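Final report, results section. Input specification for complex C-07:
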Amino acid sequence: MQAPWVTFRPELKVLDCTIRDGGLINNHQFDTDLVKAVYQTCVEAGLDYMEIGYRNSKRLFPKEKFGAFRHSDEEDIRRITGDHDEAATGLRLAVMADAGKSDWKTDILPRSQSVVGMVRVACYVDQIPEAVEMIHDAHEKGYETSCNLMAISTLQHAEIDQALQSVAETPVDVIAVVDSFGSLYREQIDILVGKFLEVAKATGKQVGIHAHNNQQLAFANTIDAIILGANRLDATMAGLGRGAGNCPMELLVGFLRNPKFKKRAIWKLLQDHFVALRQRMEWGPLVPYIITGQHNEHPRAAIEVLAGPNRDKYVEFYDRIVGE
Amino acid sequence: MQAPWVTFRPELKVLDCTIRDGGLINNHQFDTDLVKAVYQTCVEAGLDYMEIGYRNSKRLFPKEKFGAFRHSDEEDIRRITGDHDEAATGLRLAVMADAGKSDWKTDILPRSQSVVGMVRVACYVDQIPEAVEMIHDAHEKGYETSCNLMAISTLQHAEIDQALQSVAETPVDVIAVVDSFGSLYREQIDILVGKFLEVAKATGKQVGIHAHNNQQLAFANTIDAIILGANRLDATMAGLGRGAGNCPMELLVGFLRNPKFKKRAIWKLLQDHFVALRQRMEWGPLVPYIITGQHNEHPRAAIEVLAGPNRDKYVEFYDRIVGE
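Structure output:
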């Protein structure tokens, strides 16, 4: 399972979640051209998965306000991918369904009617019972599945153990550590990924990692998870993602030595689309995101302050977060 | 020597090299106000060292072209620090002297005539003989000393071993791993810091780390070095430094748990000075710096391309670096 770092583990797979996670910045109001370019880049760069969006509820996220990839209807995905050919492209499409926010019973079609091959179930620890139902449902409909346990940095280890136990009994394929707040250091990644790996090894599942970049540690924590044995890695182009963003794909693919991954396609995407995108959207480890990450808080307060006239008042923001 | 990560190692010391390393971007043409603010912040944040500049040659770096802190004359330092009181402030001032670029015999005064307490000798591996002379000279003049072996990612391990052997025989206090190109991954840091620690333990010296941020790994690699046992850490305010910049002080101090370090002073500096500085100077892990880091090259080519009309032509730059 381990490999010397100058070689590679063939079982290690990379998932692009640029549009899904980035859409949390702009309510998924992306131009079709950009989504197509990301899809094409995933194919050309040899990535294993593209999570194209959420499959969340149109009642909770109305079409007037939210773009297509908050719901990822089949026809909207096909508008980007055509009749996506998994075997020919080597790329599997994924959608994310949030516990508590998805009409999954009706909105997730049988896999034979979908271009999607994987359903990722995201949940907070108190939503584990619904997540278990969602995993069973998606598995029975024919999908590969994952369980992404969010905001893990806020949980007691006893809670994590119980959550893992519940999920271990399901047919879920991947269990993923999600550092939603970008607050974890290497020593904590070691402990958490270690816990997940124990369960995964006993049940034949794989461990995933989804890191946020508040402390410029998303890439480093992903490397740490790889060294420990995690084989499912999330990253985004230019690190695009809510708040501080995610593990940048261009860094991850530079580190991985599997010759099937092609960096050049990613540089082309960044050059042709992301230089311009940076003018319209803001993400990355800005000071307010560092501060929420250091104090293990949701980036909400940082997002708010950055949208207003006090965006550069770091001391005031720090005092507020630490409650001085 | 090791400490659980929720506590701290009192022997671990932090050095700010904002002005010294940042000055490589602008030929050390900093406003006096900024240098004063960084100095004041080092004192207020409880940092252990401030490397205020180079003590390099006025023949090689003429006064007409280079600012005061390329040479760090005593009167220029005193203009910032007054009669700096090490004991009262807890801060020791340092200067860096480059082998091959410093008139160290004449320009480094006896310590009794200087506000500086430490001389850091920077060298490439082929300059070790001069570095050894410089260390002896500075030591005899009364200074704490370090040897910073630059561009270590380009060296064979046999070269490193020989360099370490030469330096081990000197009275140097600190031997530092310098990832000049920002190309090292954790596995390589493990090997290099391990080598340095072996020599350090046998000779009663300390190991330092100076990381560059091309791959967003400067902070993570510094954490790795801390975990291994390095006790002398370089960082800069907002990561200011040549090319991709350095390990950001605001992240490092967030990680360290020694209560003497105060983050609030750093947020104030970033707010009052660095928001504006970002409008005048550019640094950070931009794509061309990522590319030179990934390919273990000096950032020179990236600096050049970023200064010209092709700064966003990533594919062309990548092709050039990989020689396609």
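The mean pLDDT of chain A is 96. Chain A touches chain B at residues 5, 185-187, 213, 215-221, 223-224, 227, 248, 250-251, 254-255, 263-264, 267-268, 270-271, 275, 287, 290-291, 294, 312-315, 317-319 (CB under 8 Å). This concludes the modelling results for the funded period.
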